Amino acid sequence: MGKDPDDSQESFDRRLRQAMDRQKPDRATQPKAAGGDMSDLGVVLRAGTEMVSALVVGVAIGWGLDRWLGSRPAFLILFTFLGGAAGVLNVWRLVRTIDTPGDKPGP
Amino acid sequence: MAAGSTIDALGQFELHPMLGGLGQSLHFSQSPVMMIVASILVLAFLYVGMRPAAVVPGRLQAAAEICYDFIYNMAVDTIGPEGRAFFPFVFTLFFFILAGNYLGLLPFSFAFTSHVAVTLALALLVFVLSVIVSLKAQGAKFFAHFMPAGAPVALAPLLVPIEILSFLSRPVSLSIRLFANMVAGHVMLEMFAAFTIMLAGLGLVGDVLAVGPVAINIALMALELLVGALQAYVFAILTCIYLREAVAH
């Protein structure tokens, strides 16, 4: 211990660095892997409701506007289509974010 | 519940006044009772778990610390450095919903997350918060997000309403997802439990066959444990994602 402090200090530093290096990748990957697993399942459950909910909102707004302005089917038809488009947009956004962490596709 | 050959799968979601006359006059049903139980349970778990405040944690303290770390990492990883400000909110949401989902699985209990009124209130809370944070962090630039960057101006009358609808659908999808999953799970449990009772009324053959639905119900209970945790997680992570969009760019 007390014989050559330089040597033991150096060896301690080296071993400390090695130990930290060993810990680092584990710490970086472990929460990601666990979270990724959970959110993959979450994405599956999300996709359906994302699409339906936008349609529900579209129909509700169209119906409300018709009720308010007395223009019976016009806004309902318009907002049903807009709601459907928004639903597809929601799903597209959801699916697009899954792909980005891996490797970025072209445009 | 299942009298004769009818299955009353939705009766379990009806609200009844609790606590006698006082509850009757206050319209105090199982739902708020279970909310209070859930809140007390979470608070007690954290309080009792963290009371020793030991350097080397015991089991309960370790569990409380893992829960804290889990949500803290989720909030900070998803939202960014500003996530620390929203960590208590996300933590509360996650454990309130998780406790509600799991308490609902106990016999003679009630899952308050199976009512759209409750989940919509929670989702609107998240939605309004994210709008307020957006307006505070980005100001008027927040409204520029409703026009996708790089799109031709001529398409604005079409794209802007779609973007607004997409934005407004957030609280709806957030609430419907949680509510629908909980209702579906509890209806399935009720259905298979009713099958067991109906089969058991058929005599010896029925007694043997009634084991089937019981086995399915055990598997369903495991599924519901997964769904309960997953839905709470999805609700919390979406809250984080919405808040990140509010704080960032």
Q: What number of structural domains do the residues of chain B give?
A: 1
Uncertain ranges of chain A: 25-36, 101-107
Number of domains of chain A: 1
Spans of at least 5 consecutive residues with low confidence of chain B: none
One letter per element, helices H and strands E, the order of chain A comes to HH
- Strand portion of chain A, in percent? under 5%
What is the H/E order of chain B? Answer: HHHHHHHH
Q: Which structural class is indicated by helix and strand composition of chain B?
A: mainly alpha
For the secondary structure, the number of strands of chain A is 0
Which geometry of chain A do the CA atoms define? Answer: rod-shaped
Radius of gyration of chain B: 22 Å
Biggest protein-protein interface? A-B, 26 and 23 residues
Largest sheet properties of chain B: none
In whole angstroms, the N-to-C terminal distance of chain B is: 54 Å
Kindly provide the radius of gyration of chain A, computed on alpha-carbon positions and rounded to a whole number of angstroms: 28 Å
Tell me the overall shape of chain B: globular
Main location (chain B): membrane
Subcellular location (chain B): Cell membrane; Membrane
InterPro entries (chain B): ATP_synth_F0_asu (IPR000568), ATP_synth_F0_asu_AS (IPR023011), ATP_synth_F0_asu_bact/mt (IPR045083), F0_ATP_A_sf (IPR035908)
Transmembrane segments (chain B): 33-50, 85-104, 116-137, 149-168, 189-212, 218-243
Explain what the structure shows:
The complex is a heterodimer of chains A (107) and B (249). Chain A has 107 residues and is mainly alpha-helical. Chain A is built from 2 helices and no strands. The C terminus of chain A is likely disordered. Chain B has 249 residues and is mainly alpha-helical. Chain B has one domain. Helix content of chain B is 73%, strand content 0%. Chain B is built from 8 helices and no strands. The longest helix of chain B has 45 residues. Chain B is globular and about 75 Å long. Chains A and B meet through helix 1 and helix 2 of A and helix 3, helix 6 and helix 8 of B.
